[in-house]
């Protein structure tokens, strides 16, 4: 491996001043806009050509070393996490935590190097990708980072009490992780838009190290959470959770201080946020990795107007839904912890009905939006935009999380005959959810690929200024209503977007802040075994939450475009 | 969903005759080659532009519907297969098989429609992707298809004997699958290179239907095989396999004819081929899906010369390795079924040593190849080639299968202290395998992205003809040895390629034809539980086999390029 490591350190000489060729390379994706006519002067520039090409195509093995590193860490991590879950005798959680500490420390060292050395050099970061690191990702990162930090504090407090009879690694790991949280959040906050041009190989490897560290942390957290929940459920499913959370862990080694059990209960509640944090950090790191060595053309930035005066029904209906959702969510959280089974079932009933109402209304409005798309045909944007492709990929991939939960619910409920109103509601929820996510994905992706209305206006005006076109082109333009006042179609689209946006927010809040009907309603737990259903929900739900946040951000963009 | 379905049926008018703009759009990726200087004539052609762009960018939702279909079938299939594995009471294998029969019939109907209607129309298939459906994929498809067909025959023969007391669906499924095998193999043999331009939406949906059907069949086969092997191992690990294969399944319903048990034993041996067949078909269908609506430029096809007279050491060493491997493989297969534990351990010992020798020699020669790459710097090819990207993606993805098996072995052996010579050898094998695959991936990908030597010669001559270049360019050209006789570097590269190619063949043959040291050596079975290790091997190994075949094909291409 050592022999292959030294890649030719391609010297990057992409000053904005030799824009002639750089712009040429990048503007080829924008055929419809004629401002930069490509000029190829044959052999006179051919020496220069090769240089440009070298900068454009880092395919041949430049990303390869970093990819190999990533795969190896991930596979080793996967094997270690699985074996610490399945064979607790030979590989204890301590072994896994030592591995994780090593990864975290290495990642921090690289981040330090990057922030102190690489990013300060001249020509290191010539371009910033405006699309990378959007505000919702950054805000989510900080929010989940803070809650993960809290989790680490609780963990430290808990395991300090076990220091006299348990490994000190159990204290060391949350300490290192807490430091890492600060480091990484700082790093991603300030550098997530960098298109690094210097030390590209080292940076790529560092970024894949960061990526795989986050994914291994994610795997470990998902596994720990699943095992914890399986243990609770396994012991006795009918007795209240509280009692078992208190008893669990007190087998052989007793805690030396009083607050231990409270802390323990608290940090298990915070696990989902840590899982979410790792996902957010992975997504941002992946975008950074894709941007290493990339030359971003400064696109003509169309200013989108954000005005709400024309929309009314959508936001109001959405807000009502959010308020109603919050009320039922609070009721659910209060009643689900009660001992009385009757009350727990009532809480579930309300939660199911509310969710079905929300998701049905969303499906209906998305359908209206799709019909409008059919009526209001528009050009598709033709430029290649890596960030948009990545956005769409992340949207579809994260929706798989909710898909898989819903399909597993669906199969379980149908197979058991859907007896009882709760099972019927559960089934209905699963079906409507699948329909809604399918439609919403279609709506968002279609919306992101349509030519924004103000770009069309600009183009249309350019057409008019340039030459007197034939009548059919005129007709085409007038159809798209250049007038300032938006047509009814655009208004309806905006109403739909605003409504969906708010509905996604409430669908995000409920699972993110602890609604777990998947465990409170025990049909699936009985149907699949404990471990399997826990694994499905613990892997699927964080992606589902990520999906809702991502959908909110994407719907906002669609809103601005229409 | 219905409302969104009708996509605008973009009329494809891409006759080769309007090559002016089509070539322009496609040739933009080939800046270094000056034959087609891009000409943008501003607004005079802009009406035409939009049309070309429309053909180029089917991103905005055209692939979306087919993607949604694919995801839904896959998720439903995944839920059904898992629940039929985990909850045999509510969802029996019969339910799963009815679902599979539905999928298979639907897929066949679409294939029939495609072959009879779509592909016969004018303008339906204007272009063929020369890179798609390479001969090794087709040959593998037919080979594994035949063996899967045999499996289905055995299955039919077995379950006919149970007809009096078991569901007739168990006979119907292999019958339908056997018909499907013929259909699909015929379809992929003749149409895998099509770039379909007509009925694009329907074709996309049909192809994703085919893709997801194959993947669900793959999932079902992997699960069945895992359950079967777990049941065998679970009953009693020390008694010979044969006895248990005979007993298994005879619980409640006895077979009405004598040959039943023989057939049953036979068809379980053939499962891995069916798994492999599904993977091959999936890969080919995916490539076809990517090619729908694609406009392939007729690249200047550089003829690669295949001559072997300059290489000697590589092929001879490789052939020796293949022969030695075959001999030890036969010995292993004979001895591993013996009752005597001593003999079984000896068989394992020989198999492990042989594999370590092969893989170590491969690592060594790959390292030499990598050093030569460092010495013999060359341009990277700059054109975007979707098939090559896909090839590289498939290579890396399929290598994950072997990676994960090796890492799980490694962790298990290290955690158990690697006691006994068999465990030490197993550990060594895992480590060398990881190193070898990493190096080989690097070598192949780097090789595929380097400018082929004869293309360089052609370019160099073009330079010379065009103008008298400055001295530095001359020097650059002479460095790359335009002379007919290949330099020593190229010779060494070819030796390495030839050796690796043959070594990959023997590494393909051994697992493909039934070497399963992962189950014969019981360390990992004890360490992880049965189900888990079975799942890992049954998912990982078919990808590993696919990887070896893919590597052989890729190495052949690298050989021709150097």
From TrEMBL, chains A, B:
Keyword Metal-binding belongs to the record: no
Keywords: Cell membrane, Hydrogen ion transport, Ion channel, Ion transport, Membrane, Transmembrane, Transmembrane helix, Transport
Family annotation (InterPro entries): Otopetrin
PANTHER family reported for this sequence: PROTON CHANNEL OTOP, PROTON CHANNEL OTOP2
Topology in membrane: Multi-pass membrane protein
A Gene Ontology term for the protein's cellular component: plasma membrane
Record-annotated membrane-spanning stretches: 63-86, 98-118, 139-159, 171-190, 266-289, 310-332, 352-373, 394-418, 492-513, 525-547
Family: Belongs to the otopetrin family.
Compartment list: Cell membrane
Pfam families from the UniProt entry: Otopetrin
Name recorded for this polypeptide: Otopetrin 2
GO terms for MF: proton channel activity
């Amino acid at each position: 491996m050592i022999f292959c490591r030294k890649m030719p350190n391609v010297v990057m000489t992409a000053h904005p001043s030799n824009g002639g060729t750089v712009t040429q390379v990048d503007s080829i994706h924008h055929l419809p806009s004629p401002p930069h006519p490509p000029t190829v002067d044959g052999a006179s520039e051919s020496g220069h050509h090769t240089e440009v090409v070298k900068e454009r195509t880092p395919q041949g093995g430049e990303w390869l070393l970093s990819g190999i590193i990533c795969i190896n860490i991930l596979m080793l991590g996967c094997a270690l996490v699985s074996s610490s879950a399945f064979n607790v005798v030979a590989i204890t959680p301590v072994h896994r935590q030592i591995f994780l500490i090593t990864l975290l420390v290495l990642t921090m060292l690289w981040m330090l190097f990057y922030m102190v050395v690489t990013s300060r050099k001249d020509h290191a970061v010539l371009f910033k990708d405006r699309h990378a690191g959007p505000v919702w990702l950054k805000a989510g990162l900080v929010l989940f980072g803070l809650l993960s930090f809290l989790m680490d504090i609780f963990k430290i407090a808990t395991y300090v009490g076990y220091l006299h009879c348990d490994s000190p690694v159990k204290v060391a790991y949350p300490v290192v992780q807490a430091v890492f949280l600060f480091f990484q959040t700082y790093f991603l906050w300030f550098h997530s838009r960098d298109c690094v041009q210097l030390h590209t190989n080292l940076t790529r490897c560092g970024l894949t190290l960061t990526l795989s560290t986050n994914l291994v942390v994610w795997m470990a957290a998902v596994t720990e959470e699943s095992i914890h929940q399986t243990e609770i459920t396994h012991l006795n499913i009918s007795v209240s959770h509280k009692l078992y959370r208190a008893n669990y862990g007190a087998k052989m080694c007793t805690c030396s201080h009083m607050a231990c059990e409270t802390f323990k209960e608290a940090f298990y509640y915070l696990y989902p946020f840590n899982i979410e944090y790792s996902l957010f950090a992975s997504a941002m790191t992946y975008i950074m990795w894709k941007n290493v060595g990339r030359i971003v053309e400064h696109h003509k930035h169309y200013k989108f107007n954000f005005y709400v005066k024309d929309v009314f029904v959508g936001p109001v209906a959405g807000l009502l839904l959010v308020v109603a959702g919050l009320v039922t969510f609070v009721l659910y959280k209060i009643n689900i912890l009660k001992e009385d089974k009757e009350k727990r079932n009532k809480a579930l009933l309300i939660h199911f009905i509310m969710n079905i109402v929300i998701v049905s209304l969303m499906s209906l409005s998305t359908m209206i939006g799709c019909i409008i798309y059919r009526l209001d045909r528009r050009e598709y944007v033709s430029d290649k935009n890596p960030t948009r492709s990545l956005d769409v990929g992340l949207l579809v991939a994260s929706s798989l999380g909710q898909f898989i939960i819903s399909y597993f619910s669906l199969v379980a409920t149908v197979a058991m005959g859907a007896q009882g109103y709760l099972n019927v509601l559960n089934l209905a929820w699963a079906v409507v959810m699948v329909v809604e996510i399918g439609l919403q994905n279609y709506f968002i992706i279609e919306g992101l690929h349509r030519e924004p209305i103000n770009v069309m206006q600009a183009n249309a005006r350019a057409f008019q200024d340039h030459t007197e076109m034939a009548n059919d082109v005129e007709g085409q333009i007038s159809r798209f209503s250049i007038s300032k006042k938006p047509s009814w179609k655009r208004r309806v689209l905006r109403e739909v977007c605003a409504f969906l946006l708010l509905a996604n927010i409430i669908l995000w809040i409920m699972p993110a802040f602890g609604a777990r009907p998947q465990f409170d309603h025990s049909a699936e737990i009985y149907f699949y075994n404990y471990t399997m259903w826990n694994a499905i929900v613990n892997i699927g739900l964080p992606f589902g939450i990520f999906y809702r946040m991502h959908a909110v951000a994407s719907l906002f963009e669609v809103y601005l475009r229409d």
